[in-house]
Amino acid sequence: MDVDDDPFGSFAGYGGHRGGGVCHPDRQKPQDKAVVHEVQVSLEDIFKGATKKMKITRTVLGPDGRSTRREDKVLTIDVKPGWKAGTKITFPKEGDQTPYNIPADIVFVIKDKPHSLFTRDGSDIRYKANISLRDALLGTTVQVPTLDNKRITLQLNDVVKPTTVRRIQGEGLPLPKQSSRRGDLIVEFDIKFPDKLSPRVKQLVSENFPHS
C-alpha cells in the first residue's frame, strides 16, 4: 500500500534502476488504468485515526495462467490522524488479472464526510454558533462543542457582528505531518434577527441608534 498526501508525490523516485540486461516479462504488457474510489471519512476518524476495510471484487487468473474467476478481496486502509482530503492510498496491481496485461492499481481517495456541527478548513475546524440579536448586542455565554466531546465556555462581552469570529487554539485536527500538534477551532456566529418589532421596541431603537 502506498500513501500519497503530496500532489507532487507521484514524481518521487523517478529514474528507477539504471543497470542493464534484465528483462521482466510484465514490461511487455500494458498496465490497465488505475481504478479510483472515494472513501468518505468522518472528522472524528481524521481526529483519532481509524481502520477502514474496503471490499473489492476482481477477476483473477487460475493456476494455468489462462482461465479466470471472480473473487472478493478486502483491502485495509489505516487512516492516520490529520490526513487531508484528497490523500491517495494506492494498492499496486490489485485490479483485474488477465493473461494479456498488468492489473490496474486500486486507488482510494480520502473525502471528508459531511458533519452535523463542523466544517473543515485545512487542519482547522469551523463551528457556527446561533445567538439572538439581543445576545449579540448585550453579550452572552456560548458553550462550544469540540471533536473530543468537550464543551468550551466562550464569554462574549463585545458586540457580535455577522463577521465576528473567535479562535480557540489547539482544538482543531492534528497536523498531517505533526500529529502531536493541532489546528484551531474557529467559531462563527449566526445572528437570529426577529421577524418583527413592537412599536415600543422600534421607538427605543430609534432613540438609542439614531441615523449617523
TrEMBL record:
Record's GO cellular component terms: cytosol
Q: Which UniProt keywords apply?
A: Chaperone
Q: Which domain of life is it from?
A: Eukaryota
Under the heading SUPFAM superfamilies, the entry gives: HSP40/DnaJ peptide-binding domain (SSF49493)
Q: What is this protein called?
A: Chaperone DnaJ C-terminal domain-containing protein
Q: Does the keyword Signal apply?
A: no
InterPro entries, alphabetized: DnaJ_C (IPR002939), DnaJ_subfamily_B (IPR051339), HSP40/DnaJ_pept-bd (IPR008971)
Q: Which residues form the Chaperone DnaJ C-terminal domain?
A: 36-194
Q: Name one GO biological process term.
A: protein folding
GO MF terms held by the record: protein-folding chaperone binding; unfolded protein binding
Tell me what organism the protein belongs to.
Answer: Paralvinella palmiformis
Keyword Acyltransferase listed? The answer is no
Under PANTHER family, the record lists:
DNAJ HOMOLOG SUBFAMILY B MEMBER 5, DNAJ HOMOLOG SUBFAMILY C MEMBER
Which Pfam families did the record assign? DnaJ_C
